[in-house]
Design brief:
With 387 residues, the protein is of the alpha/beta class. The protein folds into 2 domains: 5-138, ATPase, nucleotide binding domain (Nucleotidyltransferase, domain 5, 2-Layer Sandwich); 144-344, Nucleotidyltransferase, domain 5, CATH 3.30.420.150. It has 17 helices and 14 strands. The chain is globular, with a radius of gyration of 22 Å.
């Protein structure tokens, strides 16, 4: 599991004056603790701060900043100096927000860009040195699991199968979920072991796919991006079984990404992005493809003027649309439920309610010094948990 960081011990600065008063609602004279999840992806750096509420949480703050960490990675295999500087700047802003809110526990995870980059581990060390934040580079399987947990309450009560489609900047995770098992095992069972029947991580993301065809005009590029996405999905050995499962009347997809939420905003003709309208709404294949056609027809300038797209997202929309289009072709019967939630929410739920790691037992006899290995382990735990 990703590392738990006690802010008071791993960050260079002390808590801001008055931070304790900002840490959440008062209950029985006690301050509710705040948790935070930080997700450093190929394109965005995101923060979610929340306090526990029953089996869910109340959002205190949400922040997203485009850092384009994976820019140029497809060609060079390395994170560029400019991309690293942008990411560290974004993380400094997040560091300030964590301090401002007096967050008690935070987990920081990095995904595809850091997994693929030759200098990914070196970058993570530099982030710790300059911001005090300790990141863990998680595997694609863990990324898929957390996204599934984050979207679990969007699974239809009668569904037998669900395909979670998590489109990122550098990869796309497809998770085929046993919806019946998710219901039978309950929330605790979901956190202990998400009922994922099969999954894959496709080397397709909105940034990497866009960069691969950036030498072409977008009119020429789209059909080629779509064809590339088709071929990549077809290479997944599990796609035939998923296609059959999605043909069931109650099966559906859950789309969790900026691409999918923006598509929903275009379909709903919103004059501004509204999470309460987008999250949980349904997008049929027909409506989704109509929104994709509109985005292709209006061109870059037209997309920039759309209130739910804007300047920053406009250049990456078509590559994301090509991935959605290809997934729908592979599973044509699938309705898609739109999720303005995913990885960060899954991370928070796992932190708040997931299985707790047992504390390591001291093996040395009373009065006997622990071994060098034991001492190192305990010192490490003290740094993580503030013991």
């Amino acid at each position: 599991m990703p590392q738990v960081i006690n802010l008071g011990h791993t960050m260079a600065d002390k808590k801001a004056p008055g931070a304790r008063e900002k840490r959440g609602a008062q209950r029985n004279g006690k301050t509710a603790p705040l948790f935070a999840a930080v997700d450093l992806g190929t394109n965005n750096c995101r923060l979610l701060v929340a306090e526990p509420r029953g089996k869910t949480f109340r959002v205190v703050d949400s922040h997203s900043q485009i850092a384009r960490l994976g820019e140029g990675l497809h060609e060079t295999g390395r994170l560029s100096d400019a991309a690293i500087d942008r990411a560290i700047d974004a993380l400094q802003n997040i560091r300030k927000k964590l301090k401002q809110h007096g967050v008690g526990r935070v987990r920081c995870i990095a995904t595809e860009a850091c997994r693929k980059a030759a200098n990914g581990a070196e970058f993570i060390r530099r982030v710790h040195e300059e911001t005090g934040l300790t990141f863990k580079i998680i595997g694609a399987k863990e990324e898929a699991r957390l996204a599934t947990i984050g979207c679990h309450d969007l699974i239809e009560p009668k569904a037998a199968s669900v395909l979670v489609v998590d489109i990122g900047g550098g990869s796309t995770e497809l998770s085929w979920v046993d919806a019946r098992a998710a219901r039978e095992n309950g929330f605790k069972g979901l956190l202990e072991r998400a009922p994922i029947l099969d999954w894959t991580s496709l080397p397709l993301g909105v940034v990497t796919l866009s960069e691969a065809f950036s030498h072409l005009d977008e009119v020429e590029a789209y059909p080629l991006m779509l064809d590339h996405a088709r071929q990549t999905i077809a290479e997944w050995p599990g796609i035939a079984a998923v296609r059959d499962a999605m043909a069931e009347s109650e099966a559906h997809m859950i789309g969790t990404s900026g691409t999918v939420t923006c598509l929903a905003g275009v379909h709903l003709k919103l004059d501004r992005y509204r999470r309460d309208k987008v999250d949980g709404t349904w997008l049929s294949q027909e409506d989704g493809l109509a929104a994709i056609k509109l985005l292709r027809d209006v061109g870059m300038e037209g997309r920039m003027k759309l209130p739910t797209i804007g300047d920053e997202r406009a250049g990456l929309m078509l590559s994301g649309c090509a991935i959605v289009d290809a997934v729908w072709e592979a599973c044509p019967a699938g309705r898609m439920r739109v999720a303005d939630r995913g990885l960060r929410e899954g991370l928070l739920l796992s932190m708040m309610y997931g299985p707790k790691k047992p504390k390591p037992r001291r093996r040395g006899r009373r009065g006997r010094k622990p071994s060098q290995t034991q001492t190192g382990a305990e010192n490490q735990k003290g740094t993580q948990d503030g013991g």
